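Researcher: We plan to redesign the surface later, but first we want a full-length starting point. Tokens attached.
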């Protein structure tokens, strides 16, 4: 395979009032599967791989403006100014969003405006007016697909990496008798904050970086849609 593009996404899960604020930094590498050179009608397949490079949790009770300030320092130190920022806008995420937007306007969160995603129980995803509505079943489905195809990786020695894997094992889809999907950890005391943040980052970057089929050879950049911060 030939690496075709590389980009970064920051996924944020504000959680609820009693939860910890989580940030994940995910690198996406798009590789091109070669096709026979003697086939003029051949089209190459784009396959993306994700690596979780950093996981961050803030202590319970940390003020959201302090989280935004710390996040900005991490972005500056790691040269992530061109990374997309996606956050869970469900629940208290709406109030958190205003703080993130203010920090972005002050130039503290890189060059890309944070993008809110509302996690829903609907059947179809919708993206418009600078926000998205994503069924949680889609988030879980993508995570399962990435893990089963070994396209989701953890950086060696990743802090909180073991906790992320534990959450991933415990996390499952529950289908109620009415057919409405609901999602929970295996036990009520388990959390899924790291999985939620990673799934948001992977889903939005994977879904909004169409197309995944291009002519061969790949002599032009892949056009993006929605999260237009590829580099």
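Model: Full-length starting sequence:
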């Amino acid at each position: 395979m030939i690496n075709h593009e590389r980009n970064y996404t920051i996924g944020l899960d504000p959680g609820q009032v009693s939860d910890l604020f989580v940030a994940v930094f995910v690198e996406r590498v798009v590789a091109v599967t070669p096709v026979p050179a003697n086939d003029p009608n051949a089209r190459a397949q784009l396959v993306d791989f994700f690596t979780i490079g950093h996981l961050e949790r803030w202590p319970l009770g940390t003020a959201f403006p302090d989280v935004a300030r710390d996040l900005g320092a991490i972005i500056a130190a790691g040269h992530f100014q061109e990374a997309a920022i996606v956050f869970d806008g469900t629940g208290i995420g709406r109030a958190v969003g205003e703080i993130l937007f203010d920090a972005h306007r002050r130039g503290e969160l890189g060059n890309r405006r944070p993008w809110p995603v509302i996690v829903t129980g609907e059947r179809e995803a919708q993206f418009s007016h600078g926000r998205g509505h994503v069924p949680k079943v889609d988030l879980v489905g993508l995570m399962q697909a990435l893990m089963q195809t070994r396209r989701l990786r953890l950086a060696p020695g990743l802090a909180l990496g073991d906790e992320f894997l534990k959450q991933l094992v415990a996390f499952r889809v529950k289908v109620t008798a009415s057919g409405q999907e609901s999602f929970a950890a295996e036990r009520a005391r388990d959390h899924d904050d790291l999985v939620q943040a990673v799934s948001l980052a992977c889903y939005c970057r994977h879904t909004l970086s169409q197309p995944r089929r291009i002519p061969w050879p790949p002599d032009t950049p892949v056009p993006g849609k929605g999260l237009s911060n590829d580099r």
